[in-house]
Amino acid sequence: MTNNIYLIANWKMYGSIKSVNSINKVIQLSKKPLLKNINIVYCPPFTLSHIFAKKLKNSKINVGAQDCYIHHDTGPFTGNISAKQLKNIGLKYVILGHSEKRNDGDTNKIINKKIFAAIKNKLKVILCIGEKYEENIKKLTIKTLKKQINDCLKNIPKKNVIFIAYEPVWSIGTGLIPKNEDLEKIIKKIRTIVLKEKKFINSKFLYGGSVNEKNIKNLTKIKGLNGFLIGGASQNSNKFIDIVKKTII
Ligand code: 13P
Q1: pTM (2 decimals)?
Q2: Which residues have C-beta atoms less than 6 Å from ligand 1?
Q3: What is the model's pLDDT at position 204?
Q4: Which residues form the catalytic set?
Q5: What pLDDT is attached to residue 59?
Q6: Which of helix, strand or coil describes residue 8?
Q7: Which of 92, 189, 103 is nearest to 139 (CA)?
Q8: 187 vs 151: CA distance, rounded Å
């Protein structure tokens, strides 16, 4: 692991008004000097974005969204939310290309447009990439990741810092995680592809997929990782606190 660690909580389509106060304990913990190198980012569903942004305004914790629309501004696009609107309520990050959005029809081309919209509004992009189970079995992992990276980042100005979250689709919500040695090799490869030709030089590299309070300690041993994208376990504050603590100690 690197010194500066990112723990990004993806709440997916979970959470209600009642669950907002459950993060109070995490806010308290984030004030401890021991956590100075830990960057926590909450990505709740859109219905809670504003309330999270207000609640976390004076804290060390940032807030992100789980998606944004392809058009960066505002306009007659019923049912969509733009990067400009996210920025307007104080959000700093946006997750793009999550496999659950790819399942809804997001292609690399669409994700590329969303990345343009996000950076135009100075949102930090967390780009998710990952192979499906069949691709993994057929040893197509690197080929798949390379295409996702190159297509999604096509023509994106190279000065941008991109957070690349490697999330094998077969690992999400299944309890299955690649071995540390395999993850280390894949992260190294991803890093080489992303940073090629001196592009995106300050980018960060994350792992996501079944990260929890039981396996985090072992995952922190992986070299070259800047942090984790955490789904299920981040929605339970006790588990999330456990993850945060085990990341530092
Ligand atoms: P889980 O941690 O629930 O496997 O989800 C991972 C994920 O999809 C984070 O974006």
Answers
A1: 0.97
A2: 10, 98, 167, 172-173, 208-211, 229-233
A3: 97
A4: 98, 167
A5: 96
A6: strand
A7: 189
A8: 18
The atom of ligand 1 lying closest to the CA of 173 is 4
In ligand 1, the atom with minimum distance to the C-alpha of 233 is 2
Closest residue CA from atom 9 of ligand 1: 231
Average pLDDT per block of 10 residues along the chain, 249 residues long: 89 97 97 94 98 97 98 96 98 98 98 98 98 98 98 96 98 97 97 93 97 97 96 98 92
Ligand 1 centre to CA of 173 (Å) is 6
- pLDDT, residue 78, reads 98
Exposure string over 51-83, b if 16+ CB within 10 A, otherwise e: ebbebbeeeebbbbbbbbbbbbeeeeeeeeebb
Contact 49, 123 (CB under 8 A): no
The atom number, within ligand 1, closest to the CA of 95 reads 10
Q: Which residue is it, tokens 């309330």?
A: 51
Residue having the nearest C-alpha atom to atom 5 of ligand 1? 231
Kindly give the distance from the C-alpha atom of residue 90 to the centroid of ligand 1, in angstroms, as a whole number. 24
